[in-house]
Design a protein that fits this description.
Strands 1-2 form a two-stranded parallel ribbon. Strand 1, helix 6 (about 85-95) and strand 2 (about 100-105) form a beta-alpha-beta unit. The protein is mainly alpha-helical. The longest helix is centred in the first third of the chain and has 12 residues, at about 30-40. Helices cover about 50% and strands about 5% of the residues.
């Protein structure tokens, strides 16, 4: 998103100290609020919808073989998924967790 305009160290530092990221991870702010803060902090030439579209694409799917493994396990066990993923990324995870009987994020389950 920054087209190489920032160093890796800078990016890590800013990412870790952005309070809105923590709020997003805990379900305390909506993705649009996080997007606004992120855009301001990084001085990006994107609007919120464009940023969120790109941000959601950071989740690329499940690892090879996971679906087959879950299908085998499902024959013998009730499957559940409890994830620490944020709500924006969770939307992209719904399809991969289709093999689970129950699935939720930590914030949805009330743990954070």
């Amino acid at each position: 998103m920054t087209n190489g305009a920032r160093s890796v160290d800078y990016c890590r530092d800013v990412w870790r100290r952005l309070p809105e990221l923590d709020f997003l991870e805990r379900g305390a702010v909506a993705p649009a609020q996080f997007a606004g803060a992120y855009i301001r902090e990084w001085e990006l030439a994107l609007d919120r919808p464009a940023f969120l579209d790109e941000f959601k694409r950071w989740v690329v799917g499940e690892l090879d073989g996971v679906a087959a493994l879950l299908e085998r396990l499902r024959r013998r066990f009730r499957l559940a998924c409890l994830s620490n993923v944020n709500v924006a990324h969770w939307e992209r995870c719904v399809e991969p967790v289709r093999n689970h009987d129950d699935a939720a994020t930590l914030s949805q389950a009330g743990f954070i």
